[in-house]
């Protein structure tokens, strides 16, 4: 399946559009912390990570789908054996100060 990841500039623009801190972006994308998120913004090819399609899909689904739909997917993941405790997106949507 052809996929070209967003550029660091594209991801920075998304962060600015949402008004999220690096830590909040890490939460949105399912990363451990803001430092991990910043690796996706790096212009240095030795330090940069490309955004995987599954991570981008996960974050965009959280932004676009109704909370009930996300919960239904999480329930399906749990029925397949996963353990997941995902904070609601509403916990992330406050602009950073």
Keywords summarizing the entry:
single chain; 97 residues; mainly alpha; 52% helix; globular
Could you explain how this protein is built, in words?
The protein is an all-alpha fold. The protein has a domain at 6-65. Helix content is 52%, strand content 0%. It contains five helices and no strands. The protein has helices at 8-18, 22-29, 34-39, 53-64, 67-79. The longest helix has 13 residues, at 67-79. The chain is globular. It starts with 7 loop residues before the first helix and ends in an 18-residue tail after the last helix. The mean pLDDT is 92.
Instruction: List the secondary-structure elements in sequence, H or E.
Output: HHHHH
Q: Briefly note the structural class of the backbone.
A: mainly alpha
DSSP strand content: under 5%
Count of strand segments: 0
Please compute the radius of gyration using only Cα atoms: 14 Å
Count of runs of 4 or more consecutive helical residues: 5
Helix content: 40-55%
* Multimerization state: single chain
- How would you sum up the global shape? globular
Summed over residues and divided by their number, the pLDDT gives a mean of 92
Summarize the topology.
Blueprint: H1 8-18, H2 22-29, H3 34-39, H4 53-64, H5 67-79
Quick structural gist:
The chain is mostly helical and 97 residues long. It has a domain at 6-65.
């Amino acid at each position: 399946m052809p996929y070209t990841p967003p550029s660091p500039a594209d991801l920075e623009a998304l962060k600015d559009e949402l008004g999220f801190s690096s830590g909040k972006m890490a939460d949105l994308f399912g990363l451990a912390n803001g430092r991990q998120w910043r690796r996706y913004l790096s212009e240095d090819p030795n330090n940069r990570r490309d955004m995987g399609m599954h991570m981008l899909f996960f974050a965009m689904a959280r932004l676009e789908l109704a909370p009930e739909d996300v919960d239904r997917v999480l329930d399906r993941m749990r029925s397949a054996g996963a353990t997941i405790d995902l904070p609601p997106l509403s916990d992330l949507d406050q602009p950073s100060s």
